[in-house]
Amino acid sequence: MAQTYVYLYRYTLVNGRGLSRRLGQRISINLNTANNNARVSIKFNERAGVLALYINGQYIAQWKDPAGFPSKSKGLLFTSRTTNRIQLSRIRVTGWSGGLPGQAKPAVINAKENLVVFNNGDSISGKIEIIKEGRIQVRSVSLGDQLVPLEQVDTVYFAQQNNKPPPAASVRAALFGRDTMTFEIKEWKNGKMRVQSQVFGSATMDAAAINSLIFTAKPK
Questions:
Q1: Which residues, 6+ apart, have CB-to-CB distance to 135 below 8 Å?
Q2: Are residues 74 and 22 part of one domain?
Q3: Is residue 164 very low, low, confident or very high in pLDDT (cuts 50, 70, 90)?
Q4: Domain tally for the chain?
Q5: For residue 138, which of 75, 77, 157, 186 sits 20 to 30 Å off, Cα-Cα?
Q6: Residue 6 and residue 25: Cα distance in Å, rounded?
Q7: Least reliable range by pLDDT among 18-27, 170-179, 199-208
Q8: Residues 44, 126: one domain?
Q9: Are 3 and 91 in the same domain?
Q10: Given pLDDT bands bounded at 50, 70 and 90, which one contains residue 28?
Q11: Residue 95 buriedness (CB in 10 A; 0-12 / 13-18 / 19+)
Q12: Confidence class of residue 70 from pLDDT cuts 50, 70 and 90?
């Protein structure tokens, strides 16, 4: 992993000789805006032979290892190829459901209710009360209030309040992680954006989560 790209190699030992093979293509990333600090998650599905990379909670890419997981391995090794100081901290090993963005698909979408689809394929419909500090709260008629970490969420389908086109002052934002949003920018100050959307209403966003903006308003 470097500041602008990441790639995956498989290293094996055959008859005392080390062999290496790159899996897939090199992926472009951007750590220049991470303020010298990034949260990296490496997720592996042993059964499917799939490894996925997340940086600061955003899905980056996945690789398929046709040879499967080297189950005899019992450790982790971190190595650096730079003379610059690198600090690793708060290392955790936890379970993973194996879900990836775009995998979970709801059977029925009710246009009058918000629908939250989880990584394991389950879903819940209702009113989204708040999305803040890495968690989403959904008020369901049958289950009551449910507070769920966003890392367990695959997709959020917002209720369609109307079919009107967005206001002329709206912008289309491309987020890191390949998602997009359309909204009006009400205020941009101190790295925070206060926005208004026809879909999710008023919200405050971290500007660092935005990769690019497309302004649609026509000049007067």
A1: 147, 148, 149, 150
A2: yes
A3: low
A4: 3
A5: 186
A6: 9
A7: 170-179
A8: no
A9: yes
A10: confident
A11: exposed
A12: low
* Cα angle 23-174-1, degrees, rounded to a multiple of 5: 30
- How do beta strands 114-118 and 171-175 pair? unpaired
- 69: which residues sit within 8 A by CB, 6+ positions away? 44, 46, 49
> What tokens appear for 166 in the block?
């967005």
Q: Could you tell me if 58 and 92 lie in one domain?
A: yes
d(CA 51, CA 143): 34
End-to-end CA distance of the chain: 46
Q: How many CB atoms lie within 10 A of CB 68?
A: 10
Residue 160 has pLDDT above 70, yes or no: no
Contact by Cβ (8 Å): 153, 118? yes
Closest CA to 200 of 218, 177, 220, 173: 173
Taking CA atoms, 110 is separated from 115, 163, 171, in Å, by 8, 15, 26
19: its two tokens: 């062999």
Exposure b/e, 12-37, CB count within 10 A at least 16 = b: eeeeeeeeeeeeeeeeebebeeeeee
Determine the structural domain holding residue 175 and report its residue range.
171-215
